[in-house]
Design a protein that fits this description.
Elements (H helix, E strand, L loop, with lengths): L3 E13 L4 E13 L3 E5 L6 H8 L7 E6 L2 E2 L5 H4 L3 E4 L11 H6 L14 H14 L14 H14 L4 E5 L7 H18 L2 E5 L3 H7 L2 E6 L2 E5 L1 H12 L2
Parallel strand pairs: 3-8, 3-9, 6-7, 7-8
Antiparallel strand pairs: 1-2, 1-4, 4-5, 9-10
Helix pairs in contact: 4-5, 7-8
The protein binds adenosine-5'-triphosphate.
InterPro entries: AAA+_ATPase, ABC_transporter-like_ATP-bd, P-loop_NTPase, Siderophore_ABC-ATPase
Keywords: ATP-binding, Cell membrane, Ion transport, Iron, Iron transport, Membrane, Nucleotide-binding, Transport
Subcellular location: Cell membrane
């Protein structure tokens, strides 16, 4: 039986400004379960990143409820939340001067002591994450010397080393060539299915999302709706006249 990992009720998200707030999406009601690869689709500027940042605890909600693994998001301390939710955002220029192994080891930060030393258990999790993602050969390389696809895999390995039940990724396939997009999406799907993780990502790669996601969520001004993968595939074929 899969577990309800993310529950959203009457959620409004956006940006608080000095005098008022800029609402981006409102009345979001949604349940997301463990073992699921969930893809958020929608046009530029509709609010996908805003939602992912809000669920990651990086941006405060405007109103409503966010439950992560059965507990309200705001009840978690920063450290506790980083044991529940791993986040892979678009670019991290400040991480470019690290080696692959060091960056993956950053995933252990919520578990290490004040001085940040890795225990032998931490090292096992780092090794495991590196081998799961298939980047053993890149271990000693500098992040700045990697291709976009390789760097994306390293970021996923860091989130895996963090050992969280939920992983949130903002456009993990952007800027990748087609084979790398497929590889990254399949990797994420396998992680959801084999390790029972909840993987929530945004993407503009509709064709891949339709084929690989367990759940497709369409973001529109009116809110967020689950859409049927097979129905979308049929509509795509009709549009393309094939
Ligand atoms: N820091 C901010 N302050 C105020 N408004 C913002 C801020 N960041 C984004 N927005 C606005 O919020 C809305 C939603 O942006 P968001 O980045 O969530 O869209 P998105 O669906 O992720 O788009 P894309 O597909 O282009 O990445 C946009 O109108 C954007 O201009």
């Amino acid at each position: 039986m899969e577990k309800e990992m993310i529950l959203l009720k009457k959620l409004s998200i956006g940006y608080r400004q000095k005098t008022d707030s800029r609402k981006v999406l409102k009345d979001i009601n949604l349940s997301i379960f463990s073992g699921e690869l969930v893809c958020l689709l929608g046009p530029n500027g509709i609010g996908k990143s805003t939602l992912l940042r809000t669920l990651s605890g990086l941006l405060p909600k405007l109103s409503g409820t966010i439950m992560i693994n059965g507990r309200a998001l705001e009840e978690y301390s920063e450290k506790e939340l980083s044991k529940q939710v791993g986040v892979v955002l678009t670019d991290h220029p400040q991480l470019r001067n690290m080696r692959v192994e060091e960056l993956v080891a950053l995933g252990r930060a919520p578990y290490t002591n004040f001085f940040g030393g890795l225990s032998s258990e931490d090292k096992v999790f780092v090794d495991e994450a590196i081998s799961l993602v298939g980047i053993d050969k890149l271990r000693g390389r500098m992040i700045r010397e990697l291709s976009d696809g390789e760097r994306q895999k390293v970021m996923i390995a860091r989130a895996l080393a963090q050992q969280t039940p939920v992983i949130i990724l903002d456009e993990p396939t952007a800027f990748l060539d087609f084979p790398s997009k497929v590889e990254v999406m399949k990797l994420l799907r396998n992680l959801a299915h084999d390790m029972h993780k909840t993987i929530l990502l945004s993407t503009h790669d509709l064709d891949l999302a339709v084929r690989l996601a367990d759940t497709l969520l369409q973001v529109a001004d009116s809110g967020i709706q689950k859409v049927d993968c097979q129905q979308v595939e049929k509509e795509m074929s009709l549009l393309l006249d094939i």
